[in-house]
Amino acid sequence: MTIIYRYLGLQVLMGLGIATAVLLPLFGFLDLLDQLDDVGKGTYSVKDAFLYTALLLPRRFIQLAPFIALMGNVTALGRLAVGSELTALRGAGVSPLGISLAPVVVGIILLLFITVLDQFVAPQFQQKAISSRAAALEKSAALGQQLGIWTRDERNILRIGEMLHARRAANIEIMHFDDNGFLLRYTYAKYADIINEGLWELRDVVIKTFNGNAMEIVSRESVPWEPFLKEEDISTLTKSPESLSPAELFLHVHFLRATGQESGAYELALWRKAGGALTTIAMLLLSIPFVFGSVRAGLGNRLVVASMLGISVYLFDQITANAGLLLHLNPALSALLPGGVLIAVAYFWLRRIF
C-alpha cells in the first residue's frame, strides 16, 4: 500500500509541476507585457522589465497556488483515469477515499512550502522589484498621489512627503496636539535624516507654536526629534499590504491598532493569507469529484470545467474581499468565506460520490 501511495503522490506532484509550468509563465508573460509599456520612462529598460517580472514570480506562484492545486490534481488523476489505472487501483481494493489521501498529503506539503516562501522569499523579492522599478522610473516611495505617508500616535500626526531613500525623508510635517485635541505646535522640515531608531535630524525647520490667539514662528537650520514610530514601521508604511510577510503584517496591524489608526486593509491582507491556504485545500478536494464523478469524460473536458471553476472562484474571492473592505465587514469573515464555502461544497459533493 505504501508503494501505491508513493506512486499516487508522485503523479500528483507531476500534475502540480505541469500546472505550474503552464500558469506561472502565462501570468509572468502578462506581467511582462504590462511592464513593457513603461520602457523608456526615466531609465527603465527592457532589462529592468524582465528583472521586475522575474522577481515577482514567487508572489505570483503564491497567488496561483489554489488554481495550480486544482489544475494539477485534475491533470494527475485524470491521466490515471484515462489510462484505467484508477479502475485497477479500485479493483485492487484501494477505496476512493484512500486514493484521495495522496492529493491531500501533497497539498499539505504544498502549503508548508508556500508558508516558507511567503515569509522569507516572496516579500523580499517583491519589495526589491518595486523599489528597483521606482528608482528606474524616478519615483519615490509614497502612499497615494501627492498625499505622502501619514501616521500618528495619541497626540501627534506625522506626514512624510516622500522617502528619498531608507535614511532620508523629504517634506516632513509634525502636528502636536493637547489632550483636548487642540493644535499646540506645527513643525515643518524640508528634510529629515534618520540617524537611528530613536533620533531624527530635521533640516531647514519652521516651527509654529500656538498659545491662545497668539502664534510664534521660529526657523532653525536643524532640530533633533525623537520619533514615535520605529524604523521598520516607516519602511512598512511605504509598502503595499500584499507585499508584506505574515509576520510583518501581524506586527504592523498591532502598531496601527495601538496608535488608533485604520488597520482594515492590513488585517484583510493578513487574513487573506490564511484564506489562500483554505482555498488551496478546498481546490484539492473539489478536484477529486471531477475525476471520480465523471469517469467517461475526457481529460480535456475535465480541464475546461476545472478552468471555469478556477475563474469563478477567483472572481468570488476578489468580490468578497473588496466588498468586505468597502462595507467594513470583519476581515477574517471576508477572507475566509470563499475557502469555507468551497470546502462545504466539496464535502457534500464528495459525500454524494463516495
Automatic annotation (TrEMBL):
It comes from Nitrosospira multiformis (strain ATCC 25196 / NCIMB 11849 / C 71). The keyword Cell membrane applies. It is found in: Cell membrane. Pfam families: LptF_LptG. This is Lipopolysaccharide export system permease protein. NCBIfam families: LptG_lptG. The keyword NAD does not apply. GO terms for cellular component: ATP-binding cassette (ABC) transporter complex. GO terms for biological process: lipopolysaccharide transport; transmembrane transport. Keywords: Cell membrane, Membrane, Transmembrane, Transmembrane helix. It is a multi-pass membrane protein. The chain crosses the membrane at residues 7-30, 61-82, 94-117, 274-292, 299-316, 328-350.
